Amino acid sequence: MNNIRLAQDLVIKSDLSDILEDILRGQRIRINECMRLVKSIDVVKLGAIANLLRQRLFGNTASFINNIILNYTNVCVTYCKFCAFYRPPGHNDTYTLSKEDVLKRVLTSAQTLGTTQVLFQGGHNPNLGLEYYEGIFDAIRKSSKLAIHGLSPSEIDMIAKIERSSTKEVLARLKESGLDSLPGAGAEILDDDVKSYISPLKIKSSEWLRIMEEAHELGLKSSATMMYGTIESEEQQARHIIKIAELQEKTNGFMAFIPWSFEPNATDLQSEGMIRYPSGGLNLVKMIAVSRIAYFGLIDHLQSSWLTNGIGMAQLALYYGADDFGGTLIGEEVVSATGARSTELTSNKIINAIKQIGYEPVERDNFYNILKTY
User: Fold this and answer.
1) Position 29 in a domain
2) What does the pLDDT look like over 160-178, one tens digit per residue?
3) How far, in Å, are 191, 237, 292, 294, 299 from residue 29 at the CA level?
4) Backbone angles phi, psi at 221, to 5 degrees
5) Of 65-69, 101-105, 173-177, 331-335, which gets the smallest average pLDDT?
6) Does the residue 153 lie in any domain?
7) Comparing C-alpha atoms, which of 319, 346, 320, 311 is closest to residue 332?
8) How many domains are there within the chain?
């Protein structure tokens, strides 16, 4: 109650006081209110409120997961303008990991680093059918206790097209073979005007939402993401947030939300002159704060997005409403393809980063259950 009274004191002179007071009373925001949050320049006030909401849920703790990321193939036929990772079929630099390669990396990581999750994502490879994924997931399940957090809705759609099957059947078979949950990639901004420019060959917004809903109906939890900082407007950012909220109200299947900024280096969007620079740290903490306020009581976990913004900004994001530092991400290749920064981060570095700002680090599993307190 003290936190609530303090939050009310903080917003009393803010032009957002009506929205924030509604949130504190447990009401959901809709598109007009979300647009006001996104367009607000009162970032410090937003952060103060968001941090109080985070403290109400998680106290002084900040979580992370010890995982390995496997970008299993860079072969892709969607040619997204924001991606520096993909290679078209037949390119000299293409690769696809075999089941044996995947299993070796996964088991080595589990045995030497104590990883508990494998994040399995890659390009839209037209040469990989459902059996490829089933074989890998089944092998991981039978040889380890690692959770498999893998395959975005757009990858699921690609597999379904190859198999001439429904996405729901593909999801059901993947779950049977060992898939535990889905990452939120492929959403970018859930607006088809944006998608038609930055990723015209990828699934449309309604299809991403439909596949996520199918996954939730099958008992597959997922995360949701927003890649901001390309050509989208503030209104389109707000509509993305609301679309995620509306699906969560229906299914309660999203475990976490991850806003992350577009990194333009070595991408078509940069070479075309559309985007020259990343959107920067101020936009990161603003998006974190807006997300905490918009999803309070709806999606509990919010990642600090260190991968594209660096450790220092991820630390700051924990003061603006984030509760989860993300993962160790050993072996990441997608963001590192931009050359923006090193994407290797061990659990010890995360633990130290959390302690440096006075928070208590806790290690979680794939479903945000606490495994260990440091």
Assistant:
1) no
2) 999 999 999 999 999 999 9
3) 19, 14, 12, 6, 13
4) -75, 165
5) 331-335
6) yes
7) 346
8) 1
